[in-house]
Amino acid sequence: MNHTRSAVATLLVLLTAFSAGADGPPEWPNGYEGIGWLSPSIDSHSQPVLKQPLRKPLGIAPSPAEHQELRITGSLEVTQGKVTTLASVEGVWAMPIVDDNAVRVQFSGLDAEYDYVLSLGWWDADDKGRIQSVYMGPSTASMTCVVPATPAKAFFADKATSATMMLPILPAYIADTTMIVEVRREAGPNAIMGNLVVLCRPKKEERKKVLIVTGDDYPGHRWRETAPELASALRQDPRLEVSITEVPAILGSPLLRHYDAVLIHFKNYAERLPLGEAVWGGLRDYLNNGGGVVIAHFGCGAFQEWNDFVQYSGRVWNPKFRAHDPYGPFDVSITDHDHAITKDLKDFSTSDELYTCLDGPTPIRVLCTAVSKGDQKPYPMGFVLEPGKGRVFHCTLGHDLNALRSEGTRALYRRAALWAVGLPAS
Question: What pLDDT score does 425 carry?
Fold first, then answer.
């Protein structure tokens, strides 16, 4: 039998962080600092408790002189939900916050001089068929859907797993220093929230923002390893600020407008992670209104349930075609030296999968090719198109960590991201 306790009074934590170095806290990207989080557990008195806020120097610069002191006063409080022990689940996901309709958390003390991001995790760990959405707003009477309905899980190596999303807190969702977030039940027995971290940094000079979207793929594509490697390649250019979200439904969010480009690093399977009209329509509108998109490797197989994806991706995976050459070494030839992405980029060698499975009638501009050892024909490895007002770079390279550590592949993706956000690639 599940054990539940009210979280309204007990799950309250002050948000504080300052330069008082401590060992062990996680490193957050883009200069953000964890200032408090909800991660319920049961102490010896069987009462919900919270981990203490993180305390470590703020900033990504290695010089202590460049670290900025961060002093935040405020709180986050679960105003609707209960800490529940899932009898069939072990580990850190065994004690989520649960409510029949919606888990609600209120933040107060948000300062206009700082940027805030929520790291929110969930997992339908006991496999009850939960479908959930996320809402944000300044009050319960004024909430906006920021993640449309989607299964509360990701899939890695063909197994269901937890999913974490990074959600920027935009000024439109704050009033009188207060913001509310809700995880709402759309299907299944209840709504469930696994953990929530509040990230903060002083406002800084704007960089172009890229969101890597992942969370499902063919079992041989280990996206939990390759997504950070792609982020590493892009972050080599300091003009780019890169985040990762493991929930493809974010593509249907108004938060997408916060990003200058999106990198699609997933292949969803409709029978387990369907992407509805709100998601596909969100990506389509994003491109039509001038957004940038980079499609990586088996991203060509995403959105199989939407026939018009090829109009925006240029080419799509055709399962009737031969998939690819056996994994191994081959040369990539730059065929277009005039485009901003490949101008001054030299031919390079890599070890990867040489895809031969792309299909589609949409006009594209091929930037680089490789010759298959199977039929001695050249196949596009990277190409561009500009649907609506948007920009799309589609690349089939990047099967695994080794492939993404090829300097040529890294340069190609980095320059493509710069082009997608409207910056010079040099």
Answer: 87
Q: Is pLDDT of 24 > 50? A: no
pLDDT above 50: residue 58: no
Sorted by where each starts, the structural domains of the chain and their CATH numbers stand as: 4-202 (2.60.120), 208-421 (3.40.50.880)
Q: Which pLDDT does position 26 carry in this prediction? A: 55
Strand partners, 58: 68
- Which amino acid would we find at residue 214? T
Q: Which helix (H) or strand (E) holds 421?
A: helix 407-421
Provide the token pair at 40.
């319920």
Separation of alpha carbons 15 and 71, rounded Å: 9
Q: Which DSSP string do the residues of 127-156 spell out, in sequence order?
A: ----EEEEEEEEETTEEEEEEEEEES-EEE
pLDDT surpassing 70 at residue 50: no
How many Cβ atoms from other residues are within 10 Å of residue 20's Cβ?
A: 9
> Which tokens is 14 given?
């002050």
Amino acid symbol at 209: K
Given a cut of 80, whether residue 309 has pLDDT beyond it is yes
Euclidean distance between CA atoms 26 and 357, whole angstroms = 40
Contact 413, 233 (CB under 8 A): yes
Looking at residue 35, its pLDDT comes to 81
Q: Which two tokens stand for residue 112?
A: 């206009």
Class of residue 76 by CB neighbours under 10 A (exposed 0-12, middle 13-18, buried 19+): buried
How confident is residue 248, by pLDDT bands cut at 50, 70 and 90? very high
